[in-house]
Amino acid sequence: MRQSTYLVPTLRDVPSDADIASHRLMLRAGLIRQSAAGVYSFLPIGTKVLRNIEAIVREEMDAKGAQELLMPAIQPAELWQESGRWEAYGSELMRIKDRHNRDFALGPTHEEVVTALLKADVKSYKKLPMNVYQIQAKYRDERRPRFGVLRSREFLMKDAYTFDTSFEGLDKQYEAMYDAYTKIFQRCGLDFRAVVADSGAMGGKDTHEFMVLSDVGEDTIAYSDESDFAANIEIAPVNVQYERADEEQQPLQTVDTPNVKTIEEVASYLQTSEDQLIKSLLFIVDERPVLVLVRGDHEVNDVKVKHVTDGQSVELATEEETKRYIGTTPGFVGPIGVSEEVKVLADHAVEVLVNAVCGANETDKHHKNVNPERDFSGVQYDDLRTIQEGDPSPDGKGTIQFREGIEVGHVFKLGTRYSEALGATFLDENGSDKPMVMGSYGIGVSRTLAAIIEQHHDDQGIIWPASVAPFDVHLICVQTKDDEQRQLAESLYSQLQGAGLDVLLDDRKERPGVKFNDADLLGLPIRITVGKKASEGIVELKVRKSGEMDEIASDECIEVIQERLAHL
Q1: What is the mean pLDDT of residues 482-491?
Q2: Cβ-based neighbour number of residue 7 at 10 Å
């Protein structure tokens, strides 16, 4: 490809609205341009990278026996209503109406559509197991699109779905997809972790996220410093053996705490430590009030609350709801004397507290010397807090550390969640109707591109791994007016292409500095510069990743480039 006619509009200045490296570099290097908030056009060089990632995805998916298909992006509301997700999915679901006033959604995922598809055409166990996938644009109405294509409203995704006759079959498919994803992200040159995660609106129980380690990640990974344990902090179990303090219980007291609401303020005012406080937060779980108690130095984990209550919607109560169910304002809420209408859950750390402090359910008042086993009853104890750095690893090996991560893939064991809701059954060996057992597996292709840049860049620009680079070689003719340089560059261009290498020829009438700066910005694995020694048949080779530079004979270019690429 000739750069003089290639649509690659590089920018010198950093766009003011680009907060992270991948967004800045994708704009500066001419990979994308914004059409609307959270909606981007991919220009030719960005599209080439997407296609290279897609090729890796297809190769690994096909190797596992998956079959590619293409489903519609516009999905009828009836399917989502049958599955129960039309309302449950929330405001991120982009809903539209046609001219006949019928409801549709722009697909964020395709569980409903693919289940209905196989329901119609797969009737017997003889056709199962089956694994189908597609690569397609998806849509989510993000409240606050940001970070370029990392959190956008339209994005490219690979979604796959497996159908089996048994949960044992699902386990095998899940393991195969887990292995395929591991190979995909390794081939993309990513440093990542597969972490235990929450299934969210997808449903199902067992699930892993593939997280690319990055300082700009929107998720936090809890991992052991001595084992391979890793989990999203939303779901990481706390495995701490709490011990009750060896001190005498004191009489319960109610004390004035005027305008003292936060844990920090209460601890300071009453001259006690935060771990002697009971933090009481009221949640509304599926329209039912649930009071959750954790130790003052811990944080409530609402995902764990959702799992413990088997709820669909978990929201922190408003001030009005708090007054209605508890009789006071947030900041003074406590578990003593609450209405039977309110379900009370407490973290295990609360159970062993002695002479603690909690809200008195009266404005400007708190209780002192609170002892859970004595002062309140009917409490369900469970793991309800968010894991912290320094906690023991749940697998008993080492302690927990945190890293930020970018989610690029997610695998789910759906079970019969969708097949039962939509009536997708098969006849087994005995002629009995059984629901298909399903799995769902997604890769954010456009997110993967951005994650690659986050891990592979420097101050000058992108450093593409050879496996996904838009071109193998950036061939630069320093002076296009010099006949010897131009002729050698043209000859090399033809030879390299003939050898199967993908080459970007910078034949522009630009200053050398502009060409070299653009070459570093675009970040192709190998740069070949045809300059002053063209008359001697000598060119300069630079490896973008290492910065290593050599002068080589032009007739050795193909062999040397292929050897260098094989080690990138």
Answers
A1: 97
A2: 8
**Element spanning 547, H or E:** none
Using CB atoms within 10 Å of the CB of residue 216, give its burial: 0 to 12 exposed, 13 to 18 middle, 19+ buried.
middle
Residues 313-327: tens digit of each pLDDT: 899 999 999 999 999
State residue 13's pLDDT score. Answer: 86
**Mean pLDDT, rounded, of the chain:** 95
Helix, strand or coil, per DSSP, at residue 492:
helix
Do 221 and 280 share a domain, yes or no?
A: no
In Å, what is the CA distance from 545 to each residue of 22, 115, 462, 549, 557? 17, 45, 9, 11, 18
Distance CA 57, CA 18 (A): 28
Helix (H) or strand (E) holding 517: helix 512-522
pTM of the model as a whole: 0.87
Which domain, by its residues, includes 66?
Answer: 17-236+402-453
492 and 441 assigned to the same domain: no
Verify that 53 and 164 share a domain, yes or no.
yes
Interior/surface letters 58-97, b for 16+ CB within 10 angstroms, e for the rest = bebbeebebeeeebebebbbebbebbebbeebeeebbeee
Q: Which amino acid would we find at residue 312?
A: Q
Distance of alpha carbon 424 from alpha carbon 111, whole angstroms: 12
156 and 275 assigned to the same domain:
no
Asked whether the beta carbons of 292 and 300 are under 8 A apart, the reply is yes
- Pick the closest to residue 317 from 326, 308, 306 (CA basis): 326
Q: How far is CA 186 from CA 180, 208, 285, 451, in A?
A: 10, 16, 40, 13
Indicate the pLDDT class of residue 269, thresholds 50, 70 and 90: very high
The backbone region for 550, taken as left when phi is positive above 0, alpha when psi lies in -120 to 50, beta otherwise, is beta
Q: What are the tokens at 254?
A: 């109610």
Inform me whether the pLDDT recorded for 200 exceeds 70: no
Q: Give the domain CATH number at 288.
A: 3.90.960.10
What is the spatial distance between Cα 63 and Cα 355, in angstroms, rounded to a whole number?
A: 62
Report the distance separating Cα 388 and Cα 401, nearest Å. 8
Q: What is the DSSP string of 141-155?
A: --SS-BTGGGB-SEE
- Confidence (pLDDT) at 217: 85
